[in-house]
Amino acid sequence: MWMKPIASLLLLSVFSSAHAGKILLTSGDWTAEDTSDRRNPNGYCVAYTQTEIGSTNYKLMFSRLKNSPGPMDLNIVMDGGKPATSFTLTLRDESVLSFANGGPTTVRRQMIAWNIPQHTEKLLAQLEERKDLKVKPADGSRDVRLEFSADGFKRVKEKLIEKCLNNQAFYDLAFEESFVIKRDPINPMGITPEQVKELKRVLNAGYAVHLGINGTKSDMVKLQAKFQAQLNEKESLISRIENLGGREIPGIILAAQNNDALEATSRTQLQQTNVTISQQRSSLNAAEAQLNTARTVIAPYEAEHADRQNRAVST
């Protein structure tokens, strides 16, 4: 989905003085520009400062396509003279940024040195704290060292974000941390313009992957929000199951075991009661049999006994 804009970035990777656009703000030694217009709506958002030494103008420049995704480029653009072709920039914590030879631009007598992305967050922090940047040649030339002013950078950056970048982040730190070369420092002197082009191609392809990953993460967040009620219900069920497994089910099992034991005891007692009843029934039957036998024995004497009682009463 992003490959077409990325390809455009590769074709338009150099912003030169021939493409100067609308100045958004000049503050201190920094300027913010929007190079887009009606004929070219996909111009660049640019922030730069510059210095001159002898017959050469040196411009330290951040640039990024306005309406297309892509990483922020940092370049040193050189007009006139015979300047060095590669540079190093040492930050106050001794971190080193490398600028490799990007070759000539389409503008006559203009050269570019492209920054291999490293330590950009530290660079931005130093600029925002108004600490000037010191750059020296890395190609063995005897060119004097350069110093780029930090005065005005913070305001220019904020204006560029507001008026040109549609309030998007000035720099994608997550991309640099995920995809750039970790080795430090990088010697830019042996890197050719052809290798710079290849490095930029790989970098932009990596940015497309980075956007895809972020898009997937965003889709996952949206899906989670959409089904949050179901997810909450799922968590509640899981909690209920865990509660059943940890508390209620063991209690139910114990109660069932107690009931089984009570039932077994009751069955034993019932069996014993049945035996006792059977024994008592046998004793009762035996007693009834003895009673019937006794009645049979005394039956012949009952009439004589009754007659004697009657006589005793009449006398």
Structure description:
- The protein has 315 residues and is of the alpha+beta class.
- Helices cover 49% and strands 21% of the residues.
- The protein contains 7 helices and 10 strands.
- A 10-stranded antiparallel sheet has the order 1-2-3-4-5-8-7-6-9-10.
- β9 and β10 form a beta hairpin.
- α1 packs antiparallel against α5.
- The chain is rod-shaped and about 175 Å long.
- The relative contact order is 0.10.
- Residues 1-18 have low confidence and may be disordered.
Describe the secondary-structure layout.
Blueprint: H1 3-11, E1 22-27, E2 30-34, E3 44-53, E4 56-65, E5 73-79, E6 87-90, E7 96-104, E8 110-116, H2 120-128, E9 133-137, E10 146-148, H3 153-163, H4 173-179, H5 193-226, H6 228-298, H7 302-314
Antiparallel strand pairs: 1-2, 2-3, 3-4, 4-5, 5-8, 6-7, 6-9, 7-8, 9-10
Helix pairs in contact: 1-5
Supply the key terms.
single chain, 315 residues, alpha+beta, ten-stranded antiparallel beta sheet, 7 helices, 10 strands, rod-shaped, disordered N terminus
Estimated share of beta-strand residues: 15-25%
Number of strands: 10
Radius of gyration over all CA atoms, rounded:
50 Å
Distance between the termini: 141 Å
The number of helices is 7
> Helix coverage percent of residues?
40-55%
Gross morphology:
rod-shaped
Q: If strands are numbered along the chain, what order do they take across the biggest sheet?
A: 1-2-3-4-5-8-7-6-9-10
Largest sheet data: 10 strands, antiparallel
What's the average pLDDT?
80
Ranges where pLDDT stays below 50 over 5 or more residues in a row are: 1-18
Structural class: alpha+beta
What oligomeric assembly is this protein in? single chain
SSE string, helix = H, strand = E? HEEEEEEEEHEEHHHHH
